[in-house]
Write a structure and sequence with these properties.
There is one protein chain. With about 675 residues, the chain is of the alpha/beta class. The chain folds into three domains: about 300 residues, Alpha/Beta hydrolase fold, catalytic domain (Rossmann fold); about 170 residues, no CATH class; about 100 residues, Methane Monooxygenase Hydroxylase, Chain G, domain 1. Helix content is about 35%, strand content about 20%. It is built from 20 helices and 22 strands. Strands 9, 10, 11, 12, 18, 19, 20, 21 and 22 form a nine-stranded mixed sheet that branches. Strands 1-2-4-3-5-6-7-8 form an eight-stranded mixed sheet, sandwiched between helices. α2 crosses α10, α12 packs parallel to α16 and α12 runs antiparallel to α19. The longest helix is centred in the first third of the chain and has 19 residues. It is elongated, with a radius of gyration of 29 Å.
Length: about 675
């Protein structure tokens, strides 16, 4: 660790003098030519660097991590930044606290610039030429400053600077970041939209894109739209954009337009986070530097340090996968051990991890493997973090089934009750208004998606947001009023969220207190699952089929409960008899996208897995996007994956062909 007292003084010093700099955002704001003495840090290496195309001379200010010499086999991420003399101290101080293991590379202004221009405008005058995208409309200004040469400066950075740094130092090619503020932010926006593969991460502080949104839009059009089936169509970048809360609207509006341009790509490989920083264009800089370095740290670490609410889609992608064959004991109720399989199987799992990171099977954020109730392999990719909840989609249906199993174990329901009319448990209903055959719906038929509700979608749209009418059991009342008659013919498998909400209504009716409290106290708390989000339906009941989030390790806990036939630390938490039915193959889903060998139980799936001439039973909770909790009891195996993939079945092939066979004797 660098001397923190010294760094604190540097940060304070720079924060004060930076206000005086008032970062320039156009050629009209070229600051005075007053000379300032630079602060020289002993760990900075100053390297002359010539642009081989233009013959212009620059300097690189290179700062290596403290442990660089001690770790000859280690590769380090690199943070490149422009306006080096303005930003050096602040970024050095911020990384000392928040991101020690990074190589800092500052790029100076042109040294051998025209002396007249330098004396008139200052040593930084070349930035107006090098960072600007377009030429000026005034011929005299254009001739004087030669604006709009961002393309040439980008060539210099790609062909001379980055190649030199990669050749000279042990750099990580997957973790290359650009930092630019004001006009430097505009330059970064140009790099992102013209040659996005230059960097993996882009920090664009108050980018001066006021007159460049149309051109950036044109570059976006040239690059082409994002297509999920073509990974080369992605910008593949993490982007952090800020501006000051006190900046003028004429500055803010184009920045927001640029952010919209990026978000409208709906690019799975592009993560964009915007922050509005308190202050004006100049005073917002110090906070931008610190917050952006903290953001940068979050995409280099599988443990998130975020202490504020961030949308899942704004979470940056990890620059490198986190893969551990000896998972850490986080004292979270999960026992850990080492991956002990044949070396060829071990190598195959590691190869699979790299392929997941590269996107071969889609967009996946985590793969965890547990053997004999011990976590032996843990990996995170893209948006995955060990301590951040991940959206579960329809895997929530499987968890709702477990809540019902807990209610049965506690005696609020019985196994026999599964075949009773569902309306038997809901005392606040008015049966006189029910559709014909309402009594045919049982917990069993609802749990197997065979409730038989047939509701006109357009009619339902008229009331689906009516929180008064749908409150509590009013949801079931309305469903049974709006449905077509329920017959033997209508009671076939029909996937959706009506049936899970019928089940949740029964849970809420029979347990003491509310279903929400019951889920928390009788299932999640007992498993030590506290960092989660479980949304509320318009009815006021907990969602039963989607809209919940939890950590991948907590998904594993639920899988362990299934593996152990409902027992937790010797206590029968979920009815064993119920769980056996829930995880068996009861019906065959008659839908095109379902694999033909999958059967459906009580919101859990069942499928046989063949390894050689052997066959093993697997049960799994499955949520769209790639959330799966998979249990193979005979092999004492629990596997968890989480992702945000649109075609989430490709991942199962390597699970069946690589992961499971590794544990077959």
């Amino acid at each position: 660790m660098k001397n923190k007292t010294g760094v604190s003084l540097i940060i304070l010093f720079f924060a004060i003098i930076n206000i005086g700099f008032a970062q320039e955002n156009s050629e009209k704001e070229l600051v005075s030519n007053s000379e300032r003495s630079s602060l020289v840090l002993p760990q900075i290496q100053v390297v002359p660097k010539k642009d081989t195309q233009t013959e212009r001379n620059y300097e690189l200010y290179i700062e290596l991590p403290e442990d660089y010499a001690e770790n000859p086999n280690k590769r380090y991420p690199v943070l490149y930044y422009t306006d080096a003399m303005w930003h050096l101290e602040m970024l050095s101080g911020a990384t000392a606290y928040l991101l020690e293991e990074v190589i800092l590379v500052g790029i100076s202004w042109q040294l051998d610039i025209n002396e007249g221009l330098k004396n008139e405008r200052g040593t930084h005058v070349s930035r107006f030429r090098d960072y600007s995208i377009s030429m000026h409309s005034n011929p005299e200004i254009q001739e004087k400053y030669q604006l709009g040469q961002a393309n040439k400066h980008l060539d210099f950075i790609r062909n001379d600077v980055i190649k030199y740094v990669d050749k000279t130092y042990r750099t990580d090619p997957n973790s290359r970041t650009y930092f630019g503020y004001s006009l430097g932010g505009e330059f970064g926006a140009y790099i992102l939209m013209s040659q996005p593969d230059t960097f993996n991460n882009y920090i664009l502080g108050s980018p001066t894109v006021k007159d460049e949104v149309d051109y950036l839009t044109e570059l976006n059009t040239k690059f082409g739209p994002f297509e999920a089936s073509n990974k080369n169509s992605s910008l593949k970048a993490n982007v952090f954009i800020t501006y000051g809360s006190l900046e003028e609207e004429m500055v803010v509006e184009p920045i927001e337009a640029f952010i919209k341009l990026l978000n409208d790509r709906r690019d799975n490989g592009l993560s964009v986070l915007k922050e509005v920083i308190a202050g004006n264009h100049g005073t917002a800089f110090p906070t931008t530097a610190v917050r952006s370095v903290a953001w940068l740290s979050s995409l280099m670490n599988h443990v998130s340090s975020d202490d504020h609410e961030v949308s899942f889609w704004s979470i940056p992608h990890l620059n490198n996968p986190y893969v551990s064959q000896t998972p850490e004991d986080r004292e979270d109720g999960i026992s850990v051990d080492s991956l002990s399989v044949h070396s060829k199987d071990q190598n195959a799992i590691l190869k699979l991890s790299q392929e997941i990171f590269e996107g071969k099977y889609g967009n996946y954020d985590a793969l965890l493997i547990s053997h004999k109730n011990e976590l032996v392999f843990e990996s995170y990719y893209k948006k995955g973090r060990i301590n951040l909840p991940h959206g579960q989609a329809s895997a929530v249906k499987g968890y709702t089934s477990m809540v019902l199993g807990r209610a049965i174990q506690m005696g609020y329901l019985s196994i026999e009750d599964l075949n009773k009319p569902l309306i038997h448990f809901l005392k606040d209903l008015d049966p006189k208004k029910f559709t014909q055959g309402a009594e045919k719906i049982t917990l069993h038929t609802a749990l197997t998606m065979q409730g038989g509700l047939t509701i006109d979608r357009e009619k339902w749209k008229e009331i689906e947001n009516d929180s008064v009418r749908l409150k509590g059991q009013g949801l079931v009342q309305t469903l049974l009023e709006y449905s077509e008659p329920i017959t033997d013919e209508s009671q076939t498998y029909l996937y959706g969220n009506y049936n899970p909400m019928l089940v949740m209504s029964v849970i809420d009716a029979v347990v003491p207190g509310t279903a929400q409290d019951f889920i928390r106290t009788e299932l999640l708390d007992k498993l030590g699952i506290t960092n989660y989000k479980w949304s509320t339906h318009i009815s006021g009941l907990p969602e039963a089929g989607w809209r919940a989030s939890m950590m991948s390790r907590d998904m594993l806990k639920l899988g362990h409960l299934v593996l152990n036939k409902g027992k937790l630390n010797g206590e029968q938490l979920i009815s064993e008899a119920y769980l056996a039915k829930a995880t068996s193959g009861i019906v065959r889903p008659a839908i095109d996208w379902m694999p033909k060998n999958y059967l459906y139980g009580y919101f859990w799936y069942y499928t046989p897995v063949k390894v050689g001439n052997k066959s093993f039973d697997m049960t799994l909770a499955w949520g769209g996007g790639g959330q799966r909790v998979m249990v193979v009891e005979e092999l004492d195996l629990t596997i968890v994956i989480s992702g945000h993939d649109r075609d989430d079945d490709k991942i199962m092939k390597p699970i069946f062909e690589t992961v499971i066979p590794a544990f077959v004797k």
